Amino acid sequence: MIEIKGCNDYALGQLERYWEEQPARIIPREGGRFDFFDSFEFFKILNSKEMKFPMVRLYQDGVPIDEGEYTFTRRYGGEEFPLTVDPNKVGVFISEGATTIIQSIEQHSSSVAGLCRVYEESLFCPVQANAFYTPCEKQSVAAHYDSSDVFVLQIDGSKDWRLWDFFEKRSNGKRPYNQQVIDDLTRKTPPKFTFRLNPGEILYLPRGLIHQAQTTENDSLHISMIAHPTTWKLSVSKAIEQIADSLEADLKFRSTVLVSGSIVGSKSKFSESSGVNEVVDKIVDSITWDQLKVSAVRRVIKSSFPSREGRLLDIIKNRTLSRDSFIQWREQQPFEIEARDSEVVIHLTDRALILPKVSFVAIQGLKNGEPVRVKSIRGLLTIDGKISLAQALVKNGICTVLDFRHEQV
Ligand SMILES: [Fe+2]
């Protein structure tokens, strides 16, 4: 296992040394604790939001607790909403030593959502964050392996980790999972690495590696940044799909695949190879590095959770947006800009915004993230054009409207 000391960049700086190959423990510079999240925030989310199973899951001594034990059916106006998590019942289980997991906590914390973006931009794959709270001297989940790469960020307390070998290197999650096999293996084989992960430290676990953790004398909160990898298989098949879509207009691609003899009397008119080379060559020629990169980026954008902070308020402010208003490109908004012949497309998680080509310079100027007064938007747009562009960007959640205090700057 690699040990990296004095690294304060969320373990991403030296990825190539260990990625997919071996676990790594990253120890920050002196006293380098995480300040983006804490146990108080964890319980605030759990207590103040009406969460649903399986967004919240409980485990006792490594075994899942039946969700019926901590959920109820909420009734509103004759409608039933089952699997609503009851924080009081969760509290009782926590006092008895249960581990609480909030899945996709980035949906409830903008600072965690921001961290997901940092990982996504480095890893070119979707990243989700799960938070684990485990009372002292307890095991959270049984020994297991994951089919995603995981960065464990130890927020509060500490955990004693045990790591074994790979069960399946670069696991794709397709192999049937058998807990009994893992239990037998970890009982018979001593762990390869044992160590304590302290606050501020990060553990990188490559997918397919067997691991297990136990809290120490203190309660523990950690966040797992779960990277769903963009493999070559996924990337190439996605790229072929996108290329095939873009070649739809080509008559050759719209013709039928014929096998000799499939049409009565065709005999030698069609052969198996007829047209194959031309079609395949065209696709192969189109699979470029840029195309693969675009596929990977679009996969991230499609699965990302964009920050919703202030979105609805922006819609209200947008009504009175003027030439003197200030707007700013939203941080944490996953996007990709595609320049086409006559238009610019901004790809977002749930939609694509198509704008006239003349907006391109303005968009380039805005996306660096600095606040911009609407009338000072770059490019050749008229004032009315700048206001319309700003309103479209705000309406679609790409930009935010800064409040009155900023307008006085
Ligand atoms: Fe795990």
The CATH superfamily of the largest domain is identified as Cupin
Helix content: 25-40%
Strand order in space, largest sheet: 1-2-12-9-14-8-7-3-4
User: What fold name goes in the CATH topology slot of the largest domain?
Assistant: Jelly Rolls
Radius of gyration: 26 Å
Summed up, the domain count is 3
Q: Just give the CATH class of the largest domain.
A: Mainly Beta
Shape: globular
Distance between the termini: 52 Å
**DSSP E strands, number:** 20
Quickly give the structural class: alpha+beta
The major sheet is characterized as: 9 strands, mixed
Q: Describe it for me?
A:
By secondary structure, the protein is α+β, with helices and mostly antiparallel strands. It folds into three domains: 2-227, Cupin (Jelly Rolls, Sandwich), CATH 2.60.120.650; 232-293, no CATH class; 311-407, Outer Surface Protein A, domain 3 (Alpha-Beta Complex). It has twelve helices and 20 strands. The strands form five sheets. The protein has a nine-stranded mixed sheet. Strand 17 and strand 18 form a beta hairpin. Helix 5 crosses helix 8 (289-303). The chain is globular, with a radius of gyration of 26 Å. The model has no long low-confidence stretch (mean pLDDT 89). Residues 144, 146, 150, 211 line the site of fe (ii) ion.
